[in-house]
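[step 3/7] inverse_fold.run input=structure_tokens len=265
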């Protein structure tokens, strides 16, 4: 997490308005401070307001209930803003740090430049686009719903997945789940990728393909040979992308995928 994130929030000011007898000495561990910093920035809350919300989000042990804090912050903001979501969820503001869903893949975790194969160009899309922009593009320019924004928030704030990994996950889920971002399915995959320490687009793509093949074999052993369900998988599952040996309809579909994101890159 960038150091400037911690520097931009005044924890001393927040604590000055909170009764010390309410707090457990372990209430402000690193993970809790990171969450408070992210929420305060995302919802544009001052330290004293954030302190009030933290107070009502403490459990009986004086520790911060993180899920309750996120809920309280979101409700507070919407109550005071005609039920709208914060503008930082939809656009970055000049002169301020971009929110987490408006960051693209860090340079040191991107693939080396110069790979102009179809697969290399797809990886570049995942690495270049910010998760919000990528999801919006998948929806043909339509702004993601509040439900979708909460899913993005979970991926980048709670699980701290890198932007390119989030993009691969979104593409995989939408392609295999009939263009639906199914929250429970997203969480299952995200948790598994986090445990596997997936950090790059290439790693996420390879892991997704291997896991999909394992799941397919399991399903085939439980399904009657007479029942064949046609499955939809991402274009980047095609191994021939690296060698540019893709022709016909498949190549046209991939080129269409790439052109869809040129305006963002």
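[step 3/7] decode complete -> sequence:
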């Amino acid at each position: 997490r960038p150091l400037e994130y911690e520097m931009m929030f005044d924890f001393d000011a927040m604590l000055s308005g909170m009764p010390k007898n309410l707090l457990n000495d372990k209430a402000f561990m690193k993970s809790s401070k990171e969450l408070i910093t992210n929420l305060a920035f995302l919802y544009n809350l001052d330290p004293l307001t954030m302190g009030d919300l933290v107070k009502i989000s403490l459990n009986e042990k004086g520790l911060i209930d993180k899920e309750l804090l996120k809920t309280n912050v979101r409700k507070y903001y919407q109550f005071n803003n005609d039920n709208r979501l914060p503008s930082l969820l939809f656009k970055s503001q000049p002169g301020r740090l971009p929110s987490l869903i408006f960051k693209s893949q860090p340079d040191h975790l991107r693939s080396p430049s110069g790979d102009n194969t179809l697969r290399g160009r797809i990886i570049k899309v995942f690495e270049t686009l910010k998760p919000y922009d990528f999801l919006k593009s998948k929806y043909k320019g339509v702004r993601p719903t509040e439900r979708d924004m909460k899913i993005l928030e979970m991926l980048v704030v709670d699980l701290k997945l890198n932007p390119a990994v989030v993009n691969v996950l979104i593409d995989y889920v939408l392609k295999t789940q009939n263009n639906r971002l199914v929250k429970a399915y997203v969480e299952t995959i995200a948790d598994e990728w986090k445990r596997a320490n997936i950090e790059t687009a290439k790693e996420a793509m390879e892991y997704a393909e291997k896991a999909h093949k394992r799941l397919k074999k399991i399903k085939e052993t439980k399904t009657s040979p007479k029942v064949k369900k046609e499955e939809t998988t991402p274009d980047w599952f095609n191994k021939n992308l690296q060698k540019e040996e893709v022709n016909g309809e498949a190549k046209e579909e991939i080129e269409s995928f790439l052109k869809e994101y040129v305006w963002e890159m």
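[step 4/7] annotate
The chain is about 55% helix and 0% strand.
Residues 1-6, 90-98 have pLDDT under 50 and may be disordered.
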